[in-house]
Amino acid sequence: MTRFTDLIDGYRRFRETDWPAERARWTELAEGQSPKVMVIACSDSRVEPATIFDARPGEMFVVRNVAALAPPFETTPGYHGVSAALEFAVTQLEVEEIVVMGHGLCGGCAAALTGAFDDAPHGGGYFISEWVELLREAREAVRARFPEPGPDAMLEMEWAAVRASLANLRTFPWVAERERDGRLTLHGAHFSIAEGRLYVLDEAEENFRPA
């Protein structure tokens, strides 16, 4: 089990090996960032985008949250953390692609599908339940097809979450505009933890295919 002291040990190894080897890269990054891709991924500790995509520092703008969800466009007051990251990536960094990457064995999708935290109190799952309400419509469609929440239902829920996030991204005017004129491309993906395999969504055929 990794603890903070282990993280500090890892940092020291980074300073001794990776930092000197990539010194020119870090000097360049100190002047600013210009990633071409934004990745919306899950907070799950098993699904690290930089590891999965073998990416170097500065190559991806990443936002992570429970179930890798993108909310719909809203203008109501509040703390819109994912929307702020999206706005920064698209309008300021001018990324050219956005990848929504769900994954297998996703606890957030399981919570949405089973309703495990419905009516939970604060500190007992309240915020989890509120967040995965973004998947309400997707959940009902999956439940209609799979009355029992088994492995097939879970996989379908995880796929549906990726599709729902892509649909929500397209409600942001500056995302939709850039996608229409070709400045921005959206992708859906699903990483199977058990297989170590990435599946990419073919939106035309509505299927996930191995990358």
What does this 3D model show about the protein?
- It holds the Pfam family Pro_CA.
- GO terms for molecular function: carbonate dehydratase activity; zinc ion binding.
- Belongs to the beta-class carbonic anhydrase family.
- Reversible hydration of carbon dioxide.
- It is an enzyme of class 4 (lyase).
- The protein has 211 residues and is α/β, with parallel strands linked by helices.
- The chain has 2 domains: 1-32, no CATH class; 34-210, 3-Layer(aba) Sandwich (Beta-carbonic Anhydrase, Chain A).
- Helix content is 44%, strand content 18%.
- The chain has 9 helices and 6 strands; from the N terminus they run ααβαβαβαααααβββ.
- The chain has helices at residues 4-21, 23-29, 49-52, 81-92, 107-114, 126-132, 136-145, 151-169, 173-180, and strands at 37-42, 60-65, 97-103, 185-192, 197-202, 207-210.
- Strands 2-1-3-4-5-6 form a 6-stranded mixed β-sheet.
- Strand 4 (185-192) and strand 5 form a beta hairpin.
- It is globular, with a radius of gyration of 18 Å.
